[in-house]
Amino acid sequence: MSTTVFCLHALGSSSEEFAGLRARLAGTLDLIGIDLPGHGRSSSVTGTTVEEMTQLVERAIGRSGATEWALVGHSMGGKVASVVAARTVDGSNGLFGLRAVVLLAASPLSPEPMDDERRRSMLAWAADGEIGPDEADEFVDANTDARLPPEQHLQAVHDVERTAPQAWTDWLVRGSREDWSSEFPPNPVPALVLAGAADGDLGPDAQRALNLPHWSAGEFAVVTGAAHLLPWERPDDVADRIRDFWRRRVDHGPAVPAATARVIASPRVSARMRGLLAVRALPDDPDREPRVLRPEQLDTLRAVARVVVPQSGDRPIDLALRVDAQLADGLGDGWRPDGLPTDVDAYRAGLDALRAESAHGDEHLATVLDAVTAGSYTPAVGTLDAAQLQAWVEDAAVDLAKQWVAHPATMAELDYDGFANGGDGVRKQGFLLLGAGQREAWEPAGDGR
């Protein structure tokens, strides 16, 4: 089943701008456009601040019932998409299942760079209560590298004309200037940031400086032959880049079953817990370089993981990569078997001792690990003796198993729902918090004994 992708359009546009991408990505992704307030078929009465637009999008995603989804944000819609994504991974908006974000010539979380004279001219277009066809035509031509084909040009101009003047003005005066850049830490969601080579204020330099740093797992590319209206100008190129990004970076790791995803998104789960599970459910980047291990050591740890924690399905969790990140961040459990060096040094030494054995296949490695665990294997290389290697293998097995169990898809497989901790506020898991001298409602007053 295709992943649902919610698409947020640019200023003066509508969900119609994604028609070309929707057709080209059908079968891989299911694109659903959302008309932001004052655009397309949506009334500006619903609110035109970034907060109000964000809430509209969050409600639409929640109502959809989607449990595995992504975001595409173009220009103005990019700013909104970034806020939605940030509030999803911190758990605060009650959504779960975000897999990736694609930003097309996106307005950043910081105030959008815009030439003052151009801003004044655009504001003047809506001053008399409507945006005329000549102004709309000028806007579309100014934001494309070459004139669009007739049908696409007419639709793009029509979208500008039907934009509510209030929404147009509110974005130029206020929304584009809102500063959300200090509200959220860097986002770990896989992100593709695209810029049109001929774009002005939101071109390659702006995307590198203002958008890319917000995404710790982001990648950047420039679309040639395009300016600002990427979905209209280069739908084939943009679709190809999204498809390739999805294949390389997103279509990995197990999906969380819909029933479990709905529980995580429910009020029974606290925002903090929901955010932790949202990050754990993100796909691993198979091409990411290890942070503390050498590549060959990571490969050996992946082999150990296949033996110690065998996983079913064709989208396994990259447990070794997650353990490498755990080591880099110093997030072990604090316990280390007596006689071993520090965690990182112990891992490096243990993996070096098993590297040659892992080259003979998983079945052979399983036999070796059984011998190591029994204390009957003497390493031929490395700095660890038999007892140290035995202790390290036991410690590594615990780390790998913990990373497996911590994934919400595994919790679903184990039928574990302990993350449903009663939600935020006072917990009511079969009891109430009582102060001295207080009684449950069902308790008789008695005589105080």
If you had to describe this structure to a student in words, what would you say it looks like?
The protein is an alpha/beta fold. Helices cover 45% and strands 8% of the residues. The chain contains 18 helices and six strands. Strands 2-1-3-4-5-6 form a six-stranded parallel beta sheet, sandwiched between helices. β1 (3-8), α1 (19-25) and β2 form a beta-alpha-beta unit. α5 (133-142) packs across α6 (150-161). The protein is elongated and about 85 Å long. Mean pLDDT is 93; it is low at 428-432.
Which strand order spans the largest sheet, edge to edge or round the barrel?
2-1-3-4-5-6
User: What would the principal axes of the Cα set say about the shape?
Assistant: elongated
Report the strand count. 6
Share of helix among residues?
40-55%
**What are the secondary-structure elements, in order, as H or E?**
EHEHEHEHHHHEHEHHHHHHHHHH
Which segments are poorly predicted (pLDDT under 50) over 5 or more consecutive residues? 428-432
Q: Could you tell me the strand content as a percent range? A: 5-15%
Largest sheet: 6 strands, parallel
Radius of gyration: 26 Å
How far the N terminus sits from the C terminus, by CA atoms, comes to: 63 Å
Mean pLDDT: 93
- How many helices? 18
Counting helices, strands and paired strands, the structural category is alpha/beta
